[in-house]
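quick one: guanosine-5'-diphosphate bound model?
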Amino acid sequence: MNINEPSTIAAIATPFGTGGIGIIRISGPLTLKTVQAIFRTKSTTATGFPELEHRKIYVGFIIDPVHLTFIDEAVLFVMRSPRSYTCEDVAEIQLHGSAVVLHTILEIILSLGVSLAEPGEFTKRAFLNGRIDLIQAESIIDLLQAKTRISASLSSSLLKGGLGLTLERIKRELLELLSLINASIDFPDEEIPVPPAGSLIERMEAIIETDLNALINSYHANRYLKEGVKIGIAGPPNVGKSSLLNCLIQKERSIVTPIPGTTRDIVEDSFMLNGIPMVISDTAGLHETQDPVEIIGIARARSHLKETDVILLVFDASKEIGSMETQIHDDLCQNNIILVFNKMDLMVPHHPPDTRSFNHILDTVFVSAKYGQGISTLKEAILRAVHPESTESIHPIVPNLRQQTGLRFIEERLLEAKNNLMQIHPIELIAIDLQAALDKIDEITGENTPVDIFDMIFNQFCIGK
Ligand SMILES: Nc1nc2c(ncn2[C@@H]2O[C@H](COP(=O)(O)OP(=O)(O)O)[C@@H](O)[C@H]2O)c(=O)[nH]1
Ligand SMILES: [Mg+2]
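yep, here:
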């Protein structure tokens, strides 16, 4: 066997457990031979199996090729190279979704010289055979893991190659800039004039401002859509934090009692706001206590609140603001706080609480969690706090963290090159930065990606994809 010839791989492509149907997927040069050894239709005999046609569905059954015994009914779907997911010959066999049947047949397939596919190996082959770029491979992971419809549709738009096309355009422009610069380095005697710095600077600025910035900024909106905006509820005991959570999610999720210290662990739930998922958590009331369970709860609350995108700091609107309130605010020491005065129904008319001592807050709202008052104002404040643009038009091409880090690197290199040009540094220095930016583009798209990054990406897949 030619050692360069790719192996043939197979895996169960449907989730583990019992299902209506289960699918085994095979890809590689031995696919058709393997299928011919185990699959029969009513009209075929062991010797006279017809040529398997591209994109044709066959109905029949699987046999054990050694004992020639019947194993299960099956539907076979064949895609011939290169017009398949992996660009290789691919067969998908639909069977009854019993784990025993699927494993028995998989074992038979593996006994015919086929190897078990690694996680993501089908998609890896699609990438290695040039059918998709690395960004598209990553968007397939996102799509498989998408928790919301909007995040699934974003992954699909990435899958169509939008980001790859933009990077291709940036790459062409950078290559042109680099060749202008290199020409003046390589042939100094030919009197090829160094391109005027002004025009080079302008072109670099255009790349940064029109393409890179939009992509980089779209990352936050995308993260919110994929993972949800993290909202933490904080405040002293008994001000109505749990009531507020229940009111926002419209469920009796967190226990509400008049007894202070009821909530000890972190209670988390979610709701949608303008199509954006919000993951909201209720925490233990912040105050001095000797109760060992509450002490743990408060420590948890504090560390959890550090990781949130927005904090709803809740106080009782019917009470005076005292040193405890300002102390809690100062201890949080975060700049993403919305001050929420709850129990506005009990508030003494014309005597609103004095909020002058709170200086790092985004907004102040008055609500009554018990009677549902002021909740829409609070929702508006939350949306304002998490980047207004994320609620409006969403950039169609939004990168993940790996791509985002890469884009930032490219931006830094271009800014560096631009500064060097402005300070009339040697042109060689500028070439180095442009080359580094170009290399990073190749790393993002997968044209030239270090093996470890590559493995890390494909290891996120499930087996059979
Ligand atoms: N009048 C009034 N009572 C409320 C309001 N919100 C909560 N409460 C009451 O305040 C008490 C404490 O509420 P809870 O949500 O458990 O507060 P937490 O300790 O901050 O979680 C309960 O008896 C609630 O019914 C409100 O807006 N108005
Ligand atoms: Mg509570």
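The pocket of guanosine-5'-diphosphate (ligand 1) is lined by residues 237-243, 256-258, 262-263, 285, 342-343, 345-346, 368-370 (CB under 6 Å).
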